[in-house]
């Protein structure tokens, strides 16, 4: 852990594009923490206005926040327009990224002699690397990982423990995959035959682009033919499941327990919130946002914001939700109308008779 | 990869029951690919009419499809009634099934001396096989798998990397389990006692039938007492979770992210689409189909097609869905009716006064 | 397996607080089984009245049940007020808890020399324990587990195969984690920057309390800063996913395929049924119960019972559900009303003209 003056942190944030201004005393800090848990000597942040009342109670020495929130006198402030981005950089500066154990190329790893391993490998005991595998430079592979026949892994990748890469799949550069995730297992491909299921060999592959990060216990099918893709810069949470032949565009964000069925085309920078999903054989445009637990069941235009199952325009879905909650009341009003109309009918009939 | 004349492929498809007819030039082909990715020398297929326009643009040398779709002159056609079944067979003929690495009985596997292993084993280093385990002939077990005390595995099974079979569980013949799946972990069995949870020992087992295939990162509980069953021929996608004591009948198809709670009885040839589920202690009849993300919350008659949560008859559920989307409009119409009736009431009252 | 007279079982149940009364012949029993699968010499139980008809057909020698259910003459009865609690104890008495293989401290485990291991270790080959790890007494760690740098594990813990504990995470005493679960992977923390995602180093930890049991293939994020917590006595089923910084209180029960997003505060003794979830940044009070597949999307008062998505009061949600199913009928009634009012209007207008 590094120690740093607030003025120096301010200077480095500004240098990296997060124009920051120090307000209050210049103090030495050595870490970042939450508003709740921070202690003296730590800097904290306020990005979500919902937590602004916690600023008054924080024990942090400084807080990174926007201009429009007050801070108590005892706390220094680093004012900037993007506190979330700034605190991210502050964490990198003060804590750095995770340091992995250093195994070199462990003698207890099981590496086929036909495999080509780049320079500066960091491959643990208990790793199995099959025939004709190619691995780039500076890769860290934790115990229990399996890399199948003919798979290709780029440079600067990290596979956490027990990750499985099936045969002939490909990972780009700087790919990170968390523990227990599986890339390239067979898709659910069967032809129905008289009430039985005939296995369709899954001869395609799965291809993961540069800078992709995948959470724990995910499963990304290989394609039946051709390939399944997760394109550059996309980030997955835990237990994300991608069906065979689906293409996920670049810079998407899929939160946890998300599923996309097979043969779907997901555009770039699409967000699927927690528990959301999409059925197969559909096209979802760029910059689409799908709310938590919502399921997309048809093609979606770019930039749409969707909610519900089947997912529809979020504003409309919210109106429907409110309407549903008031439905018992509306049914009462319809019943009342029926009585009223019946009474009018009787009155009119008796008047005209 | 094999090379084959279209006329020979046609003959072999017909021989296997997919009566096919060659239209156009007889060409040599050496692989199957998608309409989009196929190149010269490859055969492709059209099963889903949705993609018929892609036939005009394909670079494939031939396409397997039904009689009623035209093909460009430069492309040969293999006409048959079941293109999906036929292409499945074509993939088997031209690509074959996956070939596993060959380890024999690796010296680096950890196998208890009391375990009985059948002939022709293919068991990798890094596999652990506990006491009193029985494994049939021709089984392939990838690195990182664990087979617990007294478990029984039939012949011709494949366990991909990091599969865990808990003690005393049973697999039939020709069972395939993909990476990271777990068979026979304890179910969530606790007796409530004064706000705490008292563990109920899970002394039952999990039994997996012949020809079952299970996707990646699934979890199938052992039973508290008796057994949990997945019967012959059933196929699971990824992250399918089955509760303790549940019986899943033969030839079912459960897609990804599917869950069935404990003590349920699921019939034969039941389909649960992606994200679907069923609560515990219910009976679902044969040939039931449950739509994506729908949850079955009561007993279901055979052959029903269900949708929604709680899952109801699909036609009715669709009508309700459409009605919900139009709900704000209907509420407007009720409001309008109320005004109208109020005005009628006033008019009538003034007329009769 | 133990053999026991029913009278002795009755005495031991009563001694432990499940006041029981033997009705019928005193027989020797040697196991517990389900109503359906039990054979002579076994005791079964009836806790769920739904299965009372199965009592007539059981082949068990005895059944544990309440006073108000009849049993056939050939079956002895153990009458008590809490058959579920009593049968739990009967299973413990007659079957005991699982006995693990005994490895001692396997020479084939990979244990960093800086790690401190308590007395009576039971650590299998194929386990990796990194630098500065502390492990308490009497811990069982199955093959394929990984315990990262600086992690701390209490006494009497069990890690089933392929469990991964990331660096610096903590487990209390008597924690059980089933196969394939991952504790402390990075949360989905990225700052948006010009359409790209900038990684926020996840420098917090995950802390698991005493007596927690976690099912198979779960994933519990570490916090960005501070810690993610699962407090003492809480039980998770399979594939439970907990987001970064979330605090789950003591004695909760989360069934399978459950997800809670990040920065949520879940109280004590909260139940999330199968497939349920909660969004992030919310507070859920003590003793809340959330029904299957429901998603909590806002703060919840203690003791609430919720259903639906977004989860609302269960009674209200059920009324809305019934209303939705009858919606097409109500729309017909509104259409009918419109005609009726139109006809009244015409009649009234013609009368007044």
Q: What characteristics describe this protein?
A:
homotrimer, 353 residues, alpha/beta, Udp-n-acetylmuramoylalanyl-d-glutamate--2,6- Diaminopimelate Ligase, Chain: A, domain 1, UDP N-Acetylglucosamine Acyltransferase, domain 1, 9-stranded parallel β-sheet, 27% strand
Descriptive report:
The structure is a homotrimer of 353-residue chains. With 353 residues, chain A is an alpha/beta fold. Among the domains of chain A are: 4-95, MurE/MurF, N-terminal domain (Udp-n-acetylmuramoylalanyl-d-glutamate--2,6- Diaminopimelate Ligase, Chain: A, domain 1), CATH 3.40.1390.10; 163-310, 3 Solenoid (UDP N-Acetylglucosamine Acyltransferase, domain 1). The first copy, chain A, has five helices and 39 strands. Chain A has a ten-stranded parallel sheet, with no helix packed on it. In chain A, strands 9-12-15-18-23-26-29-32-35 form a nine-stranded parallel sheet, with no helix packed on it. A six-stranded mixed sheet of chain A has the order 27-30-33-36-38-39, covered by helices on one side. The longest helix of chain A has 26 residues, at 327-352. The model of chain A has no long low-confidence stretch (mean pLDDT 95). Chains in contact: A-B, A-C, B-C. The interface between A and B is large, with 75 and 66 residues.
> Which CATH C-level class of the domain at 163-310 in chain A is it?
Mainly Beta
For this structure, the quaternary state is homotrimer
Helix count of chain A, per DSSP? 5
Sheet of most strands of chain A: 10 strands, parallel
Architecture of the domain at 163-310 in chain A, CATH level 2? 3 Solenoid
By CATH, the superfamily of the domain at 163-310 in chain A comes out as Hexapeptide repeat proteins
Count every beta strand of chain A, where a strand is a DSSP E run of 2 or more residues. 39
Summarize model confidence as the mean pLDDT of chain A.
Answer: 95
Shape assignment of chain A: flat
What is the name of the CATH topology of the domain at 163-310 in chain A?
A: UDP N-Acetylglucosamine Acyltransferase, domain 1
How are strands sequenced across the largest beta sheet of chain A?
Answer: 8-11-14-17-20-25-28-31-34-37
Class from secondary-structure proportions of chain A: alpha/beta
Q: Which stretches of chain A are poorly predicted, pLDDT < 50 over at least 5 residues?
A: none
């Amino acid at each position: 852990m590094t120690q740093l003056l607030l003025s120096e942190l301010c200077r480095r944030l500004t240098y990296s594009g997060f124009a920051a201004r120090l307000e209050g005393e210049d103090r030495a800090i050595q870490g970042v923490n939450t508003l709740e848990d921070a202690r003296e000597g730590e800097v904290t942040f306020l990005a979500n206005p919902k937590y602004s009342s916690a600023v008054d109670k924080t024990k942090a020495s400084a807080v990174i926040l926007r201009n429009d929130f007050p801070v108590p006198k005892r706390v220094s402030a680093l004012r900037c327009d993007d506190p979330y981005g700034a605190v991210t950089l502050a964490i990198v500066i003060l804590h750095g990224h995770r340091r992995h154990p250093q195994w070199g190329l462990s003698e207890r790893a099981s590496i086929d002699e036909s495999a080509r391993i780049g320079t500066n490998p960091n491959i643990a005991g208990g790793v199995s690397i099959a025939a004709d595998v190619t691995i780039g430079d500076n890769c860290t592979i934790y115990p229990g990982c399996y890399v199948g026949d003919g798979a290709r892994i780029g440079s600067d990748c990290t596979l956490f423990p027990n990750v499985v890469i099936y045969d002939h799949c490909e990972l780009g550069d700087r790919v990170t995959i968390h523990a227990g995730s599986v890339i390239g297992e067979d898709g659910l491909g069967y032809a129905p035959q008289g009430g039985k299921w005939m296995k369709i060999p899954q001869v395609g592959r799965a291809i993961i682009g540069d800078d992709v990060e995948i959470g724990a216990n995910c499963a990304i099918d290989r394609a039946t033919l051709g390939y399944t893709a997760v394109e550059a810069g996309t980030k997955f949470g835990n237990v994300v499941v991608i069906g065979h032949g689906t293409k996920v565009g670049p810079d998407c964000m899929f939160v946890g327990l998300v599923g996309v069925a097979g043969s779907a085309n997901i555009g770039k920078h699409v967000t699927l919130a927690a528990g959301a999903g999409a059925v197969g054989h559909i096209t979802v445009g760029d910059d689409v946002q799908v709310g938590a637990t919502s399921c997309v069941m048809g093609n979606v235009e770019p930039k749409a914001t969707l909610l519900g199952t089947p997912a529809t325009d979020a504003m409309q879905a919210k109106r429907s939700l409110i309407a549903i909650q008031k439905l018992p009341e509306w049914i009462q009003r319809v019943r009342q109308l029926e009585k009223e109309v019946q009474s009018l009918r009787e009155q009119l009939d008796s008047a005209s008779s």
